[in-house]
Amino acid sequence: MRSIGIIGVGEIGRAITEGLCDGAERPPEVFLSPRGARTAAELAERYETVRVCAGDQAVVDRSDIVIIAVRGADRHDALDGLTADGGKVVINVMSGVGNDDLRRTLGTGAALVRAIPLPAVRERRSVTVTCPSHPVVDSLFESLGGALPVEDEASPTSPTATSAASSRASAAP
Fold first, then answer.
1. Between 42 and 107, the higher pLDDT residue
2. Is residue 36 classed exposed, middle or buried when 0-12, 13-18 and 19+ CB atoms within 10 A define those classes?
3. pLDDT, tens digit, 9 for 90 and up, residues 122-151
4. What's the rounded Cα separation, in Å, for the pair 41 and 47?
5. Are strands 128-131 and 111-116 parallel, antiparallel or unpaired?
6. What are the DSSP E strand ranges found in 11-170?
7. What's the whole-model pTM score?
8. 29 contact partners, CB below 8 Å, separation of at least 6
9. Lowest mean pLDDT among 2-6, 120-124, 166-170
10. What angle do CA 137, 140, 41 make, to 5 degrees?
11. What is the per-residue pLDDT for 159?
12. pLDDT grade, residue 163 (50/70/90)?
């Protein structure tokens, strides 16, 4: 798996890191932002492949896949001046922040995918809705319990998508 950076190490950032690393035969390199410093330090201490970077741009620079997991209300402060070149894959897991808004904030041509992971990704038991489908992102979330790609960004929060994700999760062994 490619190197993964996570900007914002709250509940979802922590759950993704734990899901990627707990019991993994070959966990990926994970670069964490200093946001949520106590949690980031604890994860770096627990997992050999996890590092805390000095700043958010260092996370982006060291990672192939960048997960933006800050609170939506904090995004302008957190992402101000951040740049992601076109070779990166950026995953938006911020609640209430669409891909168009994030693309404007980052000013990037990088692949940008919206995802709605739940904390159960830490146990690899949660299907994550993604939009649009992207092979790297869908593969990442398949390793965390499953991916359910949808065609338009309004769909991930629809009752149909949420119900389908819940059904797939409860049907998993």
1. 42
2. buried
3. 999 999 999 999 999 999 999 999 999 998
4. 10
5. antiparallel
6. 30-32, 50-52, 65-68, 89-92, 111-116, 128-131, 147-149
7. 0.88
8. 3, 4, 49, 50, 51, 62
9. 166-170
10. 110
11. 37
12. very low
User: What tokens were used for 156?
Assistant: 């991930």
Rounded to whole angstroms, the Cα distance separating 75 from 94 reads: 9
**Which tokens sit at 23?**
């019991």
Of 11-15, 93-97, 134-138, give the lowest mean pLDDT range. Answer: 93-97
Is residue 20 within 8 A of residue 67, CB to CB? The reply is no
AA letter at 92: N
> Cα(150)–Cα(7) distance, rounded to whole angstroms?
24
Query: 133: closest CA among 152, 160, 154?
Result: 152
Token duo for residue 170: 């409860």
Cis check: omega of the bond before 27, within 30 degrees of 0: no
Name residues whose C-beta falls within 8 Å of residue 160's C-beta, 6 or more positions apart in sequence: none
30, 20 contact by CB (below 8 A): yes
